[in-house]
Amino acid sequence: MKPENIIAVRATKKVYRDGDLCVKVFNEGYSKADILNEALNQARIEETGLNIPKIHEVGMFDGKWAIVSDFIEGETMASLMEKNPEKIDEYLNEFVDLQLEIHSKSCPLLSKLKDKMNNKISLTTLDATTRYELHTRLEGMPKHKKVCHGDFNPSNVIVAKDGKKFVIDWSHATQGNASADAARTYLLFCLEGKEDIAKKYLDLFCKKSNTAKQYVQKWMPIVAASQSVKGNDAEREFLLSWVDVVDYE
């Protein structure tokens, strides 16, 4: 792989293109277990029939772990939204339809969303009383077994030249309640300062899925707390500000 073939640089990895392949090379010291789990998630999601890049190999490159999968020629939906703001409603419609297609699938071998969230809440810096309240609230939420992406945002959707859409980055995939996944997407828009789009997204998701908005909102303190254990200080502060929110506009 040549340096000029780098297509993305993240805090923990670099992504290269090698012909028809995409090679995601993780930094030294990155958890081997997390890398293998990401590859396993992606392999399991392949079996659901969703449009995703297929895994070809997991191995070592220059002493670093890497995942090799299909390279999808196209543009992210996030980029298209930035370039064509007048089409935002059209893109959001397609975005929500794609998320609902994901939620229509089942994958019994994926980790359970509730288990993952309980573990994350335990790792937060919140006081014991707040953690207890969040654990109790989470336990009281309905248990579902729908495929949840866990990081569903427009930058993880690639639109190919023929219009076909592919969803990437399945490292956070679980099986669980779709409304928790929607709450996560809403908060991701808010983290980017796109509150107007977040509101449009939530209205559209609830309408298309026939879900009460209040039900998705009940998940937000739980999801925000579980996500606060990663990210930078500003993101953590924003997410923790949602934890004590009870009433929503």
What integer is the average pLDDT?
Answer: 94
- The parts where pLDDT drops under 50 for at least 5 residues are none
Strand order of the largest sheet: 1-2-3-5-4
Number of helices: 9
Measure the end-to-end span. 51 Å
Query: Helix coverage percent of residues?
Result: 40-55%
What's the Cα radius of gyration? Answer: 18 Å
Write a brief structural summary.
The chain is α+β, with helices and mostly antiparallel strands and 249 residues long. It contains 9 helices and 10 strands.
Question: Any overview of this molecule?
Answer:
By secondary structure, this protein is α+β, with helices and mostly antiparallel strands. 46% of the residues lie in helices and 18% in strands. The chain has nine helices and ten strands. It has helices at 32-46, 77-83, 88-103, 113-123, 128-140, 178-191, 195-209, 213-227, 233-240; strands at residues 6-9, 13-18, 21-26, 55-61, 64-70, 74-76, 146-148, 157-160, 165-167, 174-176. The strands form three sheets. Strands 1-2-3-5-4 form a five-stranded antiparallel sheet, covered by helices on one side. A hairpin with a 2-residue loop joins β2 (13-18) and β3 (21-26). α5 (128-140) packs across α8 and α6 (178-191) runs antiparallel to α7 (195-209). The radius of gyration is 18 Å and the shape is globular. The protein starts with 5 loop residues before the first strand and ends in a 9-residue tail after the last helix. The mean pLDDT is 94.
